[in-house]
Amino acid sequence: MLQVENTALEGVKIITPRLFEDERGFFMETFSERSFAAAGLPTEFVQDNHSYSKKGVLRGLHYQYPQWQGKLVRVLSGEIFDVAVDIRPDSATFGRWIGITLSSENHKQLFLPAGFAHGFCVLGEEAHIAYKCTSLYKHEDDRCLIWNDPDIAVNWPLQQPLLSVKDTGGRRLHALWGN
To answer: Is 65 in the active site?
Structure first.
């Protein structure tokens, strides 16, 4: 059974799978169509991704438009600060963000529905992140919101992150929908 917590952003959920642990190690069910449906979560994921990042790396804030992607994010090894930003123009929480520490120790997962930008930074030496997507990646729909937009003011736990060219060239929130 899953423990599902609501966040301050409608639709964004923190999911903690039940852990069965003994002297040999542990077992957990990270996705079950039955459990997800009972919790009101999506049950159809069409793509799985694996990301590896080193210490100091920040990735994001990424989203797809117009073919949005929902994401179910978890950490296989290491620890990250994971961020969701509401970029739905008609949302009461437009421009607001939440951040949570996901790790291979706490086993938490973050579900972000369509309409959210996503990013994370590595808190330890390295991290392996796995995430399921509700729609397929389309290069032409790939978008990036600038990670340090002062209108969003994410409180990242890194001062000088390592960024890709894509992530240094993200757009500002106020430029997304003509606001």
So the answer is: no
